[in-house]
Amino acid sequence: MxxxxxxSKIIVILGPTASGKSDLAVKIARKFNGEIxxxxxxxxxxxxxxxxGKVPKDKKTPKxxxxxxxxxxxxxxxxxxxxxxxxxxxxxxxxxxxxAGKAIREILKKNKVPIICGGTGFYIDALIYDYKLPEVPPNxxxxxxxxxxxANELFKQLKKLDPARAKNxxxxxKRRLIRALxxxxxxxxxxxxxxxxxxGSKKEYDVLFIGIKKPQEELKKLISKRLxxxxxxGMLKEVKNLHRQGVSWKKLxxxxxxxxxxxxxxxxxxxxAEMIPLLQKDIEHYAKRQMTWFKRNKNINWIENYKxxxxxxxxxx
RNA sequence: GCGCAGGUGGCGGAGCGGUCAAUCGCAUGUGACUGUAAAUCACACGCCCUAGUGGCUACGGGGGUUCGAAUCCCUCCCUGCGCA
Length: 317
Prior knowledge:
- The two termini are 13 Å apart.
- The protein has a seven-stranded mixed β-sheet with strand order 3-4-2-5-1-6-7, with helices on both faces.
- Helices cover 49% and strands 11% of the residues.
- The mean pLDDT is 92.
- It has three domains: 3-131 and 201-214 and 298-316, Rossmann fold; 140-187; 218-288, Helix Hairpins, CATH 1.10.287.
- By secondary structure, the protein is of the alpha/beta class.
- It has helices at 21-32, 93-109, 121-128, 140-147, 151-161, 163-168, 174-187, 216-233, 235-244, 249-254, 257-266, 272-295, 306-316; strands at 8-14, 34-38, 72-74, 77-80, 113-117, 205-212, 300-303.
- Helix 2 (93-109) packs across helix 3 (121-128), helix 4 (140-147) crosses helix 7 and helix 11 (257-266) runs antiparallel to helix 12.
- It has 13 helices and seven strands.
- The structure holds one RNA strand.
């Protein structure tokens, strides 16, 4: 206990999509002198605003924030790691880890509270639990080659090269198999074992996890209402613009959810009327997957309203 | 009323004498997750249980043929299309 007082405190706000994370984070930030670091794998991309539900920028945000990789302001609260990457590039967890880690240090230096807010569980965990990811950047050429093979072939190859990894890996998941082989083939060594565990948080920080809990039916309604709103706000135009600026349909589809389905509609693969329910379903499934991830983390304090979050935060300091 | 096509699990849709509790897709449930993570992937999914090469009820209703029927025949009911 006494130790904790010497550790820097950081707050993590998470929850499924449409649960109201951004709003909560802003309130907490304003009350407790915080700055927000986004943990959202899609809000990181510039030009993906409506579809990702990115908070708008205050007028006073300097135009040069992008070039300088500076946070932008919303309701006077700095937001880090929004608009930090081009949608034409591939942003990865590893980059996130570095950038977000740096943001934490900067915020602490100012004696403010870092508030990590987002729904990308993998990003949050990589950051908080300091995953030691293998230093092997993506190799598109190799990936394209491996992509041609079947999952079974890839699995056999991995089994030969790294039996230990083959034992634990999902042998039907090509994406996982390809990455594992990518690591093995470039390092000529087995995939290192990930040492971090979810048992305790990273040593140098004292972390408060706040999770927003919503009943399933309510969440579905929130998703549906939000979807309608996004369409009205011009989401279709946003996707068109991205494509016009050189983001391929394939890439847009790979972003998932609104980008995937609107891209399919714009390519005439599907009608508008068909698209809406499919997209709605897809978002619901996504919310479920997020919860599956979060449930493993027993350190999360699940709350239902702002008051509870405030109380938790009060006690934390 | 006549003709044609159909009625299969929550839905769509295979099967057309045995190996069918019934391919597959969707939905639903549960889960995985080592640089694409809004991505990618797995498992379960008629009912019952001591959970098994287990029991029971099932392919619109009823009856029949057959060692054996979701599959063939008769009949009734219902749906769609065409002709009246």
